[in-house]
Amino acid sequence: MTLFEKLIARQIPADIVYEDELVFAFRDIHPQAPTHILVVPKKPIPRIAEAGPEDQALLGRLLLKAAEVARSVGLGDSGFRLVINNGRDGGESVPHLHCHILGGRPLSWPPG
């Protein structure tokens, strides 16, 4: 069971920002920006490269909910960044697909 599955199951406490039957969003415990929220599908997909055609609707919901959560925490006007890491070199630390919402300050480009 991944860390995120334990958070979803309430085995580990989390600062929950949003939840529905498919998606779970919570504040990152090691924020990389003033606002750093993770949006996680409840279905355990290890990473975006392992999602299949059957996950298309869930992936769309993940992104739409990420934008909705960003707006709900006040990032709608100033802007925000969505990040999905894939694999070790991509910065993935938990093998459960998730989207980072980063905002609350200007974000430089390129990242990393």
Strand content: 15-25%
* Distance from first to last alpha carbon: 29 Å
- Class by helix and strand content? alpha+beta
CATH superfamily, called what? HIT-like
Q: What average pLDDT do the residues reach? A: 96
Q: Spans with pLDDT under 50 lasting ≥5 residues?
A: none
CATH topology: HIT family, subunit A
Shape estimate: globular
- What value does the Rg take, in angstroms? 13 Å
Q: Could you give a short account of the major beta sheet?
A: 5 strands, antiparallel
Distinct helical segment count:
2
The total strand number stands at 5
Q: Which sequence of SSEs, written as H and E, runs from N to C?
A: HEEEHEE
Helix content: 10-25%
The CATH architecture is 2-Layer Sandwich
Order the strands across the largest sheet as they lie in space: 1-2-3-5-4
The level 1 CATH classification is Alpha Beta
Task: Give a brief rundown of this model.
With 112 residues, this protein is an alpha+beta fold. It is built from two helices and five strands.
How would you describe this protein?
This protein is of the alpha+beta class and 112 residues long. It has one domain (3-103): 2-Layer Sandwich (HIT family, subunit A), CATH 3.30.428.10. 21% of the residues lie in helices and 22% in strands. It has 2 helices and 5 strands, in the order αβββαββ. It has helices at 3-8, 56-72, and strands at 16-19, 23-27, 35-41, 80-83, 99-103. It has a 5-stranded antiparallel beta sheet, with helices on one face. β2 and β3 form a beta hairpin.
